[in-house]
Specification:
Length: 164
Amino acid sequence: MSNEKAILAGGCFWGVEELFRHRAGVVSTVVGYTGGDVRNATYRNHGTHAEGIEIVFDPAVLSYRGLLEYFFQIHDPTTKNRQGNDRGTSYRSAIFYLDEKQKETANKLIAEMEASGKWPGKIVTEVVPATDFWNAEEEHQDYLKKHPFGYTCHFERPDWKLSK
């Protein structure tokens, strides 16, 4: 099997990247801007883009569903356009699917999460087709690896998972 790609947005891309980097099956991560209206988006000019992360993963080790389940543990998918102190559309929760299978997996998981009652409110995560992904500047790549005590509002929430 070959590697697959996922594109997600869960608030400030630094914290999302740092947590995913340590997951078994994650091959590589790149942070950037996606889902918006500005070509060649940058940190200072990204219009309506979300801060996102492109994750290359080995599906023999980590399934797409498993990747999404972890995504929903490390950010709050119940706050619209907000994560922690970060507010605005740049910090929205979104899954940018690359094919119909990813779309179906995301929608099914969200329905199961809603039915479980384990999250503190309605899931507001957008499930939308992937668009252009503009890599963030080098200083934003691996930011928390370069600055271990830098800002993040992401952390694992052990109770925010579906029972197996």
